[in-house]
Amino acid sequence: MYRGGISRQTRVEYVNRAGQRVNPRTGKPLRGYGGGGGFGIQSRLGGRGRNGINKPIIKKKRPLPVKRIGTLFGNLEPIPTNPRIDPPPRVCYNCWQPGHPKRSCPRPCVARFCANCGRRDEDVETCPRCCQRHKLWLESGQQRDEVDETDLDQHAEYHNWQHEEDNTEEDACDIVLREVMRRNEQQEAMRQRELQEMEFRRMREIESLRRVQEFDSQQIFMRRQRIKDEPHFQVSEVGSFNPRPDSPNYNNIMGASGMGNSYNGESVSFNGDEDPVNDVLKLAQTISHLSPMTQDMIMRQVMAERREKRQVEESWV
């Protein structure tokens, strides 16, 4: 048969007339030979040695991970974890399910476990990984306010037994605790600063109000003394001072305010020789630049002063 320029014979059977060869070291092969076997090629997994012989893979046993950090404190004993009694990372210690901490587990208590590392059938006091560190943790919590140099030396000796690589690594729990304490101190300092500023502003307002009150009281006292010293006052039998209508300060004394009733040098108060309507028109023209509310307040004050003045004059008559 000739295809593509290559001549090849078909249906040619090659027979090994020498027979089966057996390797004296490995023995007979595990497959059929010469077409009589019904099994495929079988070989063991592994690489070849120096003599070309297949050797099985010898896997090195990996050491189990060592848990050195817990939920309460770190620097735990270097005991390898056991998958049957130690929970996997980032799961609830009670049900071994992710998504929630042990304190809010919806399932009932399955078994007793260590509150720091989660080891089953152990407590914090009996856990071989956490018991020694737990004692130091309790002592540091109870004697936190009265720590002396001897306690610090004991803690330093306990931490120095670790390896050099462990000493260089800082405990994650201590890092988190230090960060939380730093933020709390910052918030407390900011709160104290705000309280001091509020107290300073309050004291300043109180001082300014006190000065204003003292100034007003002083002005009132000086005004009363000035009025008493004027010769236009007459003393009644009961000892009270009554101003006379012919006094030049009669309008200011009997009015609601101590300011003069004049605008732009022209009198706008009531006078018997002038027309009151003309005075009101002058007053309206003088205060036309003010707001309507202010104009209304001034007009009402002027009318009240005139009414009060009229009553005083009628009482004198």
TrEMBL record:
It comes from the Eukaryota. Keywords: Metal-binding, Zinc, Zinc-finger. GO terms for molecular function: nucleic acid binding; zinc ion binding. Residues 92-107 form the CCHC-type domain. This is CCHC-type domain-containing protein.
